[in-house]
Amino acid sequence: ALAWATGHTWLKVPETICIRARGNFSAGVTAKDLTLWVEQALGADGATYRAVEYHGVNMLSLASRQTLACMTTELGAKAGIIPPSGEVAERFQVPEWLKVDPGARYERVVEVDLNSLVPLVAVSPRVDDVRPAAELGDIRVDQVFIGTCTNGRLEDLRIAARILRGRRVAPGVRMLVVPASSQVLMDAMADGTLAVLLEAGATIGTPGCGPCIGRHMGVLGDGEVAISTANRNFRGRMGSPNAEIYLGSPATAAASAVTGRITDPREFL
């Protein structure tokens, strides 16, 4: 009403936290693991009313950059920004103004060595309680979910298919795969990715959010445990408040589907 009456609105420009990455991922480590590392480093409210800007990720695809941006919400951030570079700058016409200003100042700079990262998992019920997947091998899972805005794109499904090819989902485990869009579904059909997932015993859902918000196929029951590629794992997020949700990458989720317990995907790569 104030905006209508005065023709003005109030906007606070957020300060920016810079995540400066060096090196490259080793086998089995992905952008999701980087985001989980950042969640642990900053905390669930560590970027409240701030922008989070990633540098040094020139090798990442557009899909992986979307993963980084989506997960900044779980830091309390107003925006997640990855300056156009690499493949993205080559694919799209980048406006002249869309660049990092020389001498740009940041509220905080966080350095991360990508070479040292390992597959990580956020432990229920906090997104910032992060541990190496290899340390959680005694946790059995009832459901594996791959999808959402965070990790439901074609490259995510391909990573899962690579691990599941020639293997089967463990007995007693439900594996749900929900492509993020109709285009992802069509592309995964065209290149054979869906066939591999179906042969392994996965169920394919209608493109969209799936069970991420606890209102669709894959809702968790009382006492069930899931590993999910989504962005949130607080109590009741995917159904019963007595269920547990662990967050990991598509590679970690696929490996866990095969063993029936949380598993470091490097065992299969």
Structure description:
- By secondary structure, this protein is α/β, with parallel strands linked by helices.
- The protein folds into two domains: 15-116, Aconitase, Domain 2 (3-Layer(aba) Sandwich); 120-268, Aconitase, domain 3 (2-Layer Sandwich).
- Helix content is 28%, strand content 18%.
- It is built from nine helices and eleven strands.
- It has helices at residues 2-6, 31-42, 62-71, 86-91, 148-151, 154-164, 182-190, 193-200, 250-259, and strands at 15-22, 50-55, 79-81, 108-113, 120-122, 130-132, 143-147, 174-178, 203-204, 225-228, 244-247.
- A five-stranded parallel sheet has the order 9-8-7-10-11. A four-stranded parallel sheet has the order 3-2-1-4, with helices on one face. The chain has a two-stranded antiparallel ribbon with strand order 5-6.
- The radius of gyration is 19 Å and the shape is globular.
- The N and C termini lie far apart (57 Å).
